[in-house]
Design brief:
three-stranded parallel beta sheet; single chain; 15 helices; about 500 residues; 16-stranded parallel beta sheet; FBL13/AtMIF1-like; alpha/beta
Length: about 500
Amino acid sequence: MSERPPFIHFPGLSSSTRGESMELESPVPETQNLHQDSQPFIDSFQHSSSTRGENMEEFGSPGGPYTQELLQESQPFLHFLGLSSSARSGESMEFESPVVKTQSPLKDSSVDNISWLPDEILSHILSFLHTKAVVRTSILSKMWKHVWTLAPNIDFNDHSGPWTPAPEFSLFKSHVDGVLFHHVGPIKKCFLNCATMHSAPYIYAWISAVLSCKVEEFTVYSSYSGIKELPWNLFTCKTLVSLKLMGGFVLDLPYYVCFPCLKKLHLDSLIYVDDSSMKRLFAGCHVLEELHIKRVRGDCVLIANISVPSLKRLYLVVIYLEHVADHEYKTNINAPCLEYLEISDSSSIDYSVNFSASLVQAKIRDSPMLVRGIANVQILKLYGEAVESWNSSSRSTEWPRFNKLFHLELGGLLARKYDSGNEGLQFHGFKWIPPDSVPECLLETLQTIRIHNLVGRKCEIFLVRYMLKHAQVLQEMTIDWRYDVKWGKKTSVQRQILSTSRCSEDCEIEFI
């Protein structure tokens, strides 16, 4: 009969359980002999277990302030999983055997429950913690020493200013280098904020390291302007679903650009090599659905071509662009599937659009030329010069008829002429002049009116009473006050409005 290997005692298994399991293979006397033969192994194992807490001093004492800070940050998650106090202090982590991990530890309330969870669940838990807190979990026990490398979300946020001294930046650099070097799992979300000029030489390597981890959502911000060296494999990444580039990056694109999975793209304050850079970038976004663009002075683009057939939501902000002699800024938008449009343009750029049929909602500030191309919109919000243009009698005839419009929100000035069939109106800080005839929408279709920041001026009260007297199908009027209106003023204005006769018997007035 061949000699069996000695039986090794693992903590958590009772003597009765061990005896029962051994009786299936050998008589009790032989089992006792095996216990005697294995005693050196048992003593050695127990000795290593007792000294393991001492070995953790190089990471920080389990009861020290470093661990306590981590446990305080992680308390909601540890409490949710029923982690005992002894397990959290690192005392129950007696072994690392993968064979033992298949055993169920739930019979003993003093056993560490969280460490037995699959890596997928542990990484999901760590995704709710800040990266620095995730790294600190390595001090809990040897079993946790490398769990943090599986965290799916990474946040590198440099809160220092652009002129931070080099020694302070070196701490941030060491942190980023260490996390990216040891990370072994795929990255779902990564936020890289480089707020100091010292980070410029390292951004290329950091972005490359993140891309190698098959990142899905990537945000990169740099306050240092003029960074030209972006990895070209960034523009052919197959795993990116969301990409945000913010800061003074120079968009020098490779010959081939392809984002097969990219659905959200943010381009904030970038510098483009020429007009074709933007066009080539969008040509490689085959499934893009949401696009945010913020153009600033000196971005080197005169004619912006935004052609994305799959685009559904577009956000465009244009801050004052510098004047170029004999050149005019122009934006061409080709998005036949566009459903939502939000544009704020202080440079009065000329627009050529192709999305009128699909557009549902639009929010436009200071871009009156654009309004003529969105006649089929259902929800329209206008602010600034867009409202002033509408209110101008010289331009009102140029505006289209919005046959599908049922919600109109005007900020700044109230338009005097509008006869389409809208069902909802909102006013923000209006100044009103009564029309020569009652608008058709007020007589036939207007059902909801919301007035914001009411002060109680005579013209405001006159407008409210005018609408109540002529709105035949009005169902609801909501009025909220400006923050500084006193109680006595509110009471007086409410009395005047509530005493007004209403054309619609179903109309209800609510003051907020």
